[in-house]
Amino acid sequence: MGHFEKKSAKSDPTISLTAMPDIIFMLLIFFMVTTVLREVTLQVQVDYTRAENIEKIEQKRLVSYIYVGPEKLQGNRVGNTKIQIDDAIIDDVGAVQQLMYDKLKEEPRLIVSLRVHDETEFGIVTDIQEELRDAGTLRINYSTKQEQ
Fold first, then answer.
1. What single DSSP character describes residue 90?
2. Domain for residue 38, yes or no?
3. Count of beta carbons in the 10 Å neighbourhood of residue 10
4. What is the pLDDT of residue 53?
5. 125 CB contacts (<8 Å, ≥6 apart)?
6. Is residue 103 a part of any domain in this protein?
7. Rounded to two decimals, what is the model's pTM?
Protein backbone atom coordinates (compact mmCIF):
# COMPACT_ATOMS: atom_id res chain seq x y z
CA MET A 1 0.00 0.00 0.00
CA GLY A 2 2.95 2.35 -0.19
CA HIS A 3 2.34 3.13 -3.84
CA PHE A 4 0.02 6.07 -3.21
CA GLU A 5 1.76 9.02 -1.65
CA LYS A 6 0.23 12.44 -1.14
CA LYS A 7 2.08 15.12 -3.09
CA SER A 8 2.44 18.52 -1.49
CA ALA A 9 1.13 21.57 -3.37
CA LYS A 10 3.99 23.75 -4.59
CA SER A 11 1.85 26.68 -5.81
CA ASP A 12 1.46 29.89 -3.81
CA PRO A 13 -2.18 30.32 -2.59
CA THR A 14 -2.18 34.16 -3.04
CA ILE A 15 -4.34 35.80 -5.72
CA SER A 16 -2.61 37.57 -8.57
CA LEU A 17 -3.44 41.30 -8.61
CA THR A 18 -1.89 42.17 -11.96
CA ALA A 19 -5.30 42.78 -13.62
CA MET A 20 -6.62 44.95 -10.78
CA PRO A 21 -5.50 48.35 -12.23
CA ASP A 22 -7.13 47.48 -15.57
CA ILE A 23 -10.42 46.64 -13.88
CA ILE A 24 -10.35 49.80 -11.77
CA PHE A 25 -9.60 51.92 -14.83
CA MET A 26 -12.49 50.36 -16.78
CA LEU A 27 -14.91 50.97 -13.89
CA LEU A 28 -13.72 54.57 -13.59
CA ILE A 29 -14.31 55.16 -17.32
CA PHE A 30 -17.76 53.54 -17.11
CA PHE A 31 -18.92 55.78 -14.27
CA MET A 32 -17.46 58.90 -15.88
CA VAL A 33 -19.37 58.21 -19.10
CA THR A 34 -22.71 57.31 -17.51
CA THR A 35 -22.90 59.95 -14.77
CA VAL A 36 -24.31 63.43 -15.26
CA LEU A 37 -22.50 65.70 -12.83
CA ARG A 38 -23.66 69.17 -13.77
CA GLU A 39 -26.99 70.84 -13.14
CA VAL A 40 -28.09 74.18 -14.56
CA THR A 41 -28.05 77.16 -12.20
CA LEU A 42 -31.37 78.91 -12.73
CA GLN A 43 -31.09 82.66 -13.19
CA VAL A 44 -34.79 83.09 -13.92
CA GLN A 45 -37.79 82.25 -11.79
CA VAL A 46 -40.00 79.45 -13.11
CA ASP A 47 -43.39 78.63 -11.60
CA TYR A 48 -44.89 75.92 -13.78
CA THR A 49 -48.44 76.03 -15.02
CA ARG A 50 -50.66 73.11 -14.10
CA ALA A 51 -52.10 70.50 -16.46
CA GLU A 52 -54.40 67.51 -16.07
CA ASN A 53 -52.81 65.18 -18.61
CA ILE A 54 -48.99 65.11 -18.54
CA GLU A 55 -46.43 62.70 -19.96
CA LYS A 56 -42.93 62.11 -18.63
CA ILE A 57 -39.95 62.17 -21.00
CA GLU A 58 -37.88 59.03 -20.53
CA GLN A 59 -34.73 59.99 -22.44
CA LYS A 60 -33.46 62.99 -20.46
CA ARG A 61 -30.17 63.12 -22.39
CA LEU A 62 -32.05 64.14 -25.54
CA VAL A 63 -33.69 67.14 -23.85
CA SER A 64 -32.47 70.73 -23.98
CA TYR A 65 -34.26 73.15 -21.66
CA ILE A 66 -35.23 76.75 -22.32
CA TYR A 67 -36.27 78.64 -19.19
CA VAL A 68 -38.47 81.74 -19.50
CA GLY A 69 -39.44 83.88 -16.55
CA PRO A 70 -38.60 86.93 -14.47
CA GLU A 71 -34.87 87.32 -13.80
CA LYS A 72 -33.77 86.57 -10.24
CA LEU A 73 -32.14 89.60 -8.65
CA GLN A 74 -30.35 90.04 -5.33
CA GLY A 75 -32.47 90.29 -2.21
CA ASN A 76 -35.20 87.91 -3.46
CA ARG A 77 -36.34 90.48 -6.01
CA VAL A 78 -37.32 89.71 -9.59
CA GLY A 79 -36.67 91.69 -12.74
CA ASN A 80 -37.90 91.66 -16.31
CA THR A 81 -38.75 88.49 -18.19
CA LYS A 82 -35.61 86.79 -19.53
CA ILE A 83 -34.75 83.70 -21.56
CA GLN A 84 -32.15 81.26 -20.22
CA ILE A 85 -30.53 78.44 -22.18
CA ASP A 86 -28.09 76.30 -20.20
CA ASP A 87 -26.38 78.75 -17.80
CA ALA A 88 -26.62 81.83 -20.02
CA ILE A 89 -29.23 84.57 -20.18
CA ILE A 90 -30.17 85.30 -23.79
CA ASP A 91 -30.74 89.03 -24.37
CA ASP A 92 -31.97 88.72 -27.96
CA VAL A 93 -34.68 86.22 -28.91
CA GLY A 94 -32.99 85.92 -32.33
CA ALA A 95 -30.01 84.16 -30.67
CA VAL A 96 -32.25 81.21 -29.77
CA GLN A 97 -32.31 80.05 -33.39
CA GLN A 98 -28.54 79.69 -33.76
CA LEU A 99 -28.02 78.11 -30.33
CA MET A 100 -30.70 75.50 -30.86
CA TYR A 101 -29.59 74.84 -34.45
CA ASP A 102 -26.09 74.03 -33.14
CA LYS A 103 -27.57 71.71 -30.50
CA LEU A 104 -29.71 70.00 -33.14
CA LYS A 105 -26.61 69.33 -35.26
CA GLU A 106 -24.96 67.65 -32.24
CA GLU A 107 -28.07 65.60 -31.41
CA PRO A 108 -30.54 65.07 -34.30
CA ARG A 109 -33.15 63.54 -31.94
CA LEU A 110 -33.17 66.70 -29.78
CA ILE A 111 -36.29 67.54 -27.78
CA VAL A 112 -36.66 71.17 -26.66
CA SER A 113 -38.47 71.55 -23.37
CA LEU A 114 -39.89 74.99 -22.59
CA ARG A 115 -40.08 75.73 -18.88
CA VAL A 116 -42.11 78.90 -18.71
CA HIS A 117 -43.25 80.89 -15.68
CA ASP A 118 -47.04 80.80 -15.56
CA GLU A 119 -47.34 84.62 -15.62
CA THR A 120 -45.06 85.12 -18.63
CA GLU A 121 -46.56 86.98 -21.60
CA PHE A 122 -47.49 84.62 -24.40
CA GLY A 123 -45.87 86.85 -27.02
CA ILE A 124 -42.38 85.88 -25.79
CA VAL A 125 -43.29 82.19 -26.00
CA THR A 126 -44.58 82.70 -29.55
CA ASP A 127 -41.31 84.43 -30.54
CA ILE A 128 -39.32 81.51 -29.09
CA GLN A 129 -41.51 79.01 -30.98
CA GLU A 130 -40.84 80.84 -34.25
CA GLU A 131 -37.08 80.80 -33.61
CA LEU A 132 -37.22 77.08 -32.82
CA ARG A 133 -39.18 76.42 -36.02
CA ASP A 134 -36.62 78.38 -38.05
CA ALA A 135 -33.83 76.33 -36.43
CA GLY A 136 -35.56 73.09 -37.42
CA THR A 137 -36.09 71.95 -33.83
CA LEU A 138 -39.66 70.77 -34.22
CA ARG A 139 -39.88 68.41 -31.24
CA ILE A 140 -41.09 70.77 -28.50
CA ASN A 141 -42.30 69.92 -25.02
CA TYR A 142 -43.93 72.21 -22.44
CA SER A 143 -43.03 71.45 -18.82
CA THR A 144 -45.93 71.58 -16.37
CA LYS A 145 -46.92 70.33 -12.94
CA GLN A 146 -49.60 67.71 -12.35
CA GLU A 147 -52.90 69.36 -11.46
CA GLN A 148 -54.23 68.19 -8.13
1. E
2. no
3. 5
4. 67
5. 68, 114, 116
6. yes
7. 0.67
